[in-house]
Amino acid sequence: MSDLENSKKMAAIAVDALEDRKGEDIKVLDISSISTLGDYFIIAAGTNRNQVQALADNVQEKLGREGFFTKNVEGYDGANWILLDFGDIIVHVFDSENRLFYDLERIWRDGKVVDASDLK
């Protein structure tokens, strides 16, 4: 499997995991042509601290079962913005207020928005 196919598979698993825990406003950005950070940013929101942590936990669990493990996790204890770095994909899970404040979609607007169904 090529690196890009692997990234796509990881992104699909992450989106499914976020949907399983009722993540809100899930967005996938293909940043492969504009950054060396990774291939995909996945951005989602939760309504409260517990849900934000549950979303992050589920992403790590489902990707871990497939052999993909986080290289770094930031912000888990505070749970207003949890960053899960899997290398090829980076998952951002926000509370609603911080999602609006940081507006990653605007900052990374040069990335291509990907429909989650196109990942499968």
Overview of the molecule:
38% of the residues lie in helices and 27% in strands. The protein has one domain: Beta Polymerase, domain 2 (2-Layer Sandwich), CATH 3.30.460. It is of the alpha+beta class. The model has no long low-confidence stretch (mean pLDDT 93). Helix 1 packs across helix 2. Strand 3 and strand 4 form a beta hairpin. Strands 3-4-5-2-1-6 form a six-stranded mixed β-sheet. It starts with a helix and ends in a 6-residue tail after the last strand. It is built from four helices and six strands, in the order H-E-E-H-E-E-E-H-H-E.
Short account of what is shown:
The protein has 120 residues and is of the alpha+beta class. The protein contains 4 helices and 6 strands, in the order αββαβββααβ. 38% of the residues lie in helices and 27% in strands.
Keywords:
120 residues, alpha+beta, Beta Polymerase, domain 2, six-stranded mixed β-sheet, 27% strand
Main-sheet strand order equals 3-4-5-2-1-6
**Roughly how many Å apart are the termini?**
14 Å
* Average pLDDT for all residues: 93
The helix fraction, in percent, is 25-40%
- What is the CATH H-level superfamily? Beta Polymerase, domain 2
- Give the H and E element order: HEEHEEEHHE
Structural class: alpha+beta
Tally of DSSP β-strands:
6
Radius of gyration: 13 Å
- CATH class descriptor name: Alpha Beta
CATH architecture: 2-Layer Sandwich
Number of domains: 1
Number of helices: 4
What order do the helices and strands come in, and which of them pair?
Blueprint: H1 3-20, E1 24-30, E2 40-46, H2 49-65, E3 72-74, E4 81-85, E5 89-95, H3 96-102, H4 104-107, E6 112-114
Parallel strand pairs: 2-5
Antiparallel strand pairs: 1-2, 1-6, 3-4, 4-5
